[in-house]
Amino acid sequence: MRIDKENGNTLWMEALALEVGELWVALQLVPDGEPLPPGYIKATGHIIFDVKMDFRRKARWVKDGHKTPEPETSNYAGVVSRESVRIAFTYAALMGVPVMAADIRNAYLQAPSSEKHYIVCGPEFGLENAGKRALIKRAIYGGRVAGRDFWLHLRKCMEELGFESSKADPDVWFRPAKKRDGTEYMEYVLLYVDDVLVVSEKVSYLRLFA
């Protein structure tokens, strides 16, 4: 990159290489000469560059969702309310239970995509892949329904872990638990897209989203 050459380093190139390397989990190359699966339409994307608070360089490949057809289904994806967060902190204080906050890395890439899109790889995907077609198999930032795809995927994960969604706030999850002294209480997990708040005595070794 020109900026790297001017600065005498490779920070932006390294950031882009890291992003593309992590993005490959969401893509499936189509062999040359083979037809695309039925229903797939072409999509495009662009790269966003940013400098983090600790001066790390960050690159993000984003799908041009605004250029794709409107989804036939709802693209709603909920988040936990502020009131639920306040109640959770109050509950943790009353019960003497610790709280842990976490972030799900590359969150959207964990979820299968409900859209049928493919891209033509640019040089950022490696010169050996430039011009090749790749199916988008997982949710990618920028997609019209990527948020909903991840939200639904995360709900399935929570159910498999034995949590139940609150009827008052669907992004508050709970399950019965016992403290080391035998006291019964409820473990809570609050979800705000890829940010997680856990209320549990087991937070010191709880690894729900490792």
Q: What is this entry, summarized?
A:
The chain is of the alpha+beta class. It has helices at about 1-5, 10-25, 80-95, 145-160; strands at about 25-30, 40, 45-50, 55-65, 100-105, 110-120, 135-140, 165, 170-180, 185-190, 195-200.
Strand order of the largest sheet: 5-11-10-9-8
Helical proportion, percent range: 10-25%
**What number is the mean pLDDT?**
92
Structural category is: alpha+beta
Query: What amount of the residues lies in strands?
Result: 25-35%
Give the radius of gyration. 21 Å
Give the overall shape: globular
Query: What order do the SSEs take from the amino end to the carboxyl end, as H and E?
Result: HHEEEEHEEEHEEEE
Q: What's the number of helices?
A: 4
Sketch the major β-sheet.
Answer: 5 strands, antiparallel
Low-confidence blocks of residues: none
Distance between the termini: 34 Å
Topology of helices and strands:
Elements: H1 2-7, H2 11-23, E1 27-29, E2 41-42, E3 45-51, E4 57-63, H3 82-95, E5 99-103, E6 112-120, E7 133-138, H4 146-160, E8 164-165, E9 172-178, E10 184-192, E11 195-199
Parallel strand pairs: 2-6
Antiparallel strand pairs: 1-7, 3-4, 5-11, 6-7, 8-9, 9-10, 10-11
Explained architecture:
By secondary structure, the protein is of the alpha+beta class. The chain has four helices and eleven strands, in the order H-H-E-E-E-E-H-E-E-E-H-E-E-E-E. The strands form three sheets. Strands 5-11-10-9-8 form a five-stranded antiparallel sheet, with helices on both faces. Strands 1-7-6-2 form a four-stranded mixed sheet, with helices on one face. A hairpin with a 6-residue loop joins strand 8 (164-165) and strand 9. 23% of the residues are buried.
